[in-house]
Model the fold of this input.
Amino acid sequence: MRSEADLRRLMKTRVEPGELGDAAIASALGRLREHGYLDDAAFAETYARLRQENEKFGVRRVRQDLQHKGVGSELIAETLEARYGQTNEEALAREHLERKRLRKPENEKETARIMRRLVAAGFSTGVIYKILRQWDVPDETLSALDNLEDKLEDGPGEE
Done:
């Protein structure tokens, strides 16, 4: 399945430039919509469901992926509210850790690695810190992660 914007982008490379090509794309997309093969709402719902159930991704990651695929922000908000509204983010993060076979970190380097993996999977830093505290990660390590996070937010080369 693909979003309408995704299909439009792919078709644009295969048609002649100009109004004739744009008309061909619009016609093809119109026929796909008419026959029920192209529906951004169904695409967004299916994409979010599969990422939540199979990949155990957090809401931030799914939102970012859907935006990248060209789904409208209003549709994304509705879909994610319906899909993640009643979801326990901490439980989902633990399922993600289990799925990736990530265990309790033994040192600062492993702790940073787990933090990066969970952030990339779309989980909030509050949930990540809660999990790390429950694993009895030393406070010094967590404060080092805070410093690392501040440096990442500032951007490279800024101080």
Observations:
- Confidence is low (pLDDT under 50) at residues 155-159.
- The chain has three domains: 1-38, 39-87, 89-154.
- Residues 89-154 form one domain.
- Residues 19-34 form the longest helix (16 residues).
